[in-house]
């Protein structure tokens, strides 16, 4: 289901979640039941710095790529977490 997110939606979500590292809290809540949130956050931090040559890569883009490998993560799950974080702009983006 996450693979259905188009490139523009991914970029817009990145602009929202990359700001003030909101993607970290998003990941922690989203993956809280798996026990792997901290590992994923660390992996994303390393990947977004090394891939982008100095940290200009979007951690959210890397995160979304990783989340595609988790079949239990659905857009509806992401919307629930974004609602919990009170990120209405991101919720609206995923609902349309």
Automatic annotation (TrEMBL):
Report the protein name in the record. Pentatricopeptide repeat-containing protein
Q: Which InterPro entries match?
A: DEATH-like_dom_sf (IPR011029)
């Amino acid at each position: 289901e996450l693979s259905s997110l188009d490139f523009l939606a991914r970029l817009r979500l990145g602009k929202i979640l990359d700001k003030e590292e909101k993607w970290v809290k998003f990941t922690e809540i989203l993956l809280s039941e798996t026990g792997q949130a901290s590992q994923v956050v660390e992996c994303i931090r390393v990947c977004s710095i090394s891939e982008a040559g100095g940290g200009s890569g979007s951690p959210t883009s890397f995160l979304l790529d990783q989340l595609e490998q988790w079949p239990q993560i659905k857009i509806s799950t992401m919307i629930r977490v974004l609602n919990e974080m009170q990120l209405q702009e991101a919720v609206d983006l995923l609902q349309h």
